[in-house]
Amino acid sequence: MHMVAANLCVWVSYLIKETLEELGEIAFRQSAYLSVLNNSAATITKVTIDELQEAIENYYLYHPACFEKMVLIKVSQQLSPFLFPCIIEYSLIVSGIIFIMWKNVGQGSPIDEGTEVQTRGTGLSGGLRVDCEHATAGLFIGLIVFVLTLINLIIFFIMINEKDYRENAVVASHAFEIVAYLVDLVCIVMSLRCVQQLRFADEEGELDTLLLFIAQLGVFMYAVFSLIASHQQFHNIDAIVIFITNVTKMIQASLQTVFILDGSRRYSDIDDEACKQKPGRQIVTYLIVSNFSLWALSTFSAQKVEANTIQLEFYGLYTWTIITHICTPLSIFYRFHSTVCLFEIWKRAYKPKKA
Q1: Per-residue pLDDT tens for 129-138?
Q2: In the beta sheet, which residues pair with residue 352?
Q3: pLDDT at site 163
Q4: Count of CB atoms within 10 A of residue 128's CB?
Q5: Torsion angle, alpha carbons of 19, 25, 31, 36, to 10
Q6: Bridge partners for 268 per DSSP
Q7: From CA 82, how far away is CA 61, in angstroms rounded?
Q8: Which of these, 43, 240, 259, 308, has the minimum number of CB atoms within 10 Å of its CB?
Q9: pLDDT tens profile 38-50
Q10: What is the pTM of this model?
């Protein structure tokens, strides 16, 4: 339990550290804005502050003594939004694994001396064999979705930096998410019907269930906060799109968790017709790639937090920054862990074995 607590403390410490750094940067920009504003009667825009910051960076850039330090700091700051969720994911996974180990210590019957214990694994001599039957169509469509996700990210990063197109960038990004969630919803419903042909084993994956529920809590928290903010400004097109996005996200995440919990307990009997037909495997393949695409979308559009003007206006800059630093890493982890769980279903549920 000490190791569980230690990893949770790492999670909380990095959460506080990143939040304080973000709030410090916001405070610095605001103080710089007020300082320049007090020294001049003209109206100062965000461009002026950006130019001031660029001038400071150029000063350090052309002084050799400060160059190396400045480069390292800048690289660290640019990578921080992407690496911060990875630390959260690692801490959660390790905490979950150690907790399950602690829970199962002393359980089961002891092994007598002299009893030969069988180990299961794929040695280098045996190689690794993956059955990709009834999966090519789902993989092909999933790759198309992944390419469209990359295109959406590229367009978003280009448009979000242009003041005139910022609102269009946010609406287009949320519209893509809505379509992705709706397509996933249809696929999940179809998968739930298909896997009913497989046999059900009353086995519980404690670790996967625990991590799924913790990660889904972050998805729900972010969606609920966004729904509250958007509901208060329903006259705005941005608010309507954000509201629809988060409703579909919650429904999709809920049904997907139900499917993962059910599918992880399914298996094929070697004598069943379903063992040959592999019902729903194409759809599961698509869901694997789709969740990976949503993971990439959530990870690399981290700066979209600043573009969510609806939430910023409702909660304020400081409060919304704290909310996103708590919820966003868990939402990213949910997509990552769902991808892993769906792959386990794809690999194990359709593998023939005796009942």
Answers
A1: 556 666 678 8
A2: 268
A3: 73
A4: 7
A5: -160
A6: 352
A7: 24
A8: 43
A9: 555 444 444 454 5
A10: 0.76
